[in-house]
Amino acid sequence: MIVNAPTAHQSSPFLPCTFVLCAALFVLLDGLGVTGLWMASLKALPIAILAQLALRQLYGLSRSLTLAALAFSALGDVLLEITFTHHFIFGLGAFLLAQLLYAANFLRHADFRNRRSLMRILPVILCALVLARLILPVTGELAPAVLFYLLAIVAMALGAAAHRGNSGLLFTGAITFMLSDTLIALNKFVTPLPLADTAIMLTYYSAQFAILYGIRRTQA
C-alpha cells in the first residue's frame, strides 16, 4: 500500500480572504492612529489565521517549525504593539526565535552548490553588509542584539535562497521579510520614514503569507 504525504491542498478561499481582510483592517486602523490593547490582538490575528492554514496545508517537521515560527511572530506582534519597559527588546527576542525557526526549516533543504542559489545568495549578503554598516553604528547598547537578529534573518533568507525545488515564492517572502525589518531599523535608528508603520505592516504580512505558501509549494 502506498501512503502519500498529507495533501490538504484543496482549501477553500475563506481563510486566505479572512487573512487579507484582517491584515487590511489592522493596517487601516493603525494608519488612522487608533490605539488600545485590542489592537495588539488584531495585529496578531492575521498570523493566527496563517497558523490555521499551516495546520491544514503543511505536514511533517516543516509544519511544526512553521507553526512555532508563526507563534513567536504573533507573540512579537503583541509585544511590539503594547508599551512597557523594554518592550522592543522582548519583541525583538520573539522575532529572533521566529527567524531561527524559519532558518532551521529552510536550511534542512538547502543546496548552496548550484548557480541559482549563488545568484540569489550574493545580493542577500551584499544587502546585509550595507545594512549592517548603516545601522549598527547608531544602535548604541542595542548593537549586539540587533547584530544577532540581523544574522538570524540573513540565515533565514540564505536558507530560502538555496532551498531546493520550486522555491521562488519562498525566496520572495524571505526577501520581503528582510525589507520589512529593514524599514523598522531605518525608522527606529536612522531617520523617521513617511508612512513607516503602514509600509512595515504591509511588507510584513505579505512576507508571512508568501513564506507560508512558498513552503506549501516546495512540499507539493
Automatic annotation (TrEMBL):
It is found in: Membrane. It comes from the Bacteria. It is a multi-pass membrane protein. The chain crosses the membrane at residues 12-29, 65-82, 88-106, 118-136, 142-161, 168-186, 198-215. Keywords: Membrane, Transmembrane, Transmembrane helix. The keyword Transmembrane applies. The keyword Kinase does not apply. Its main location: membrane. Belongs to the TMEM86 family. This is Lysoplasmalogenase. It comes from Microbulbifer echini.
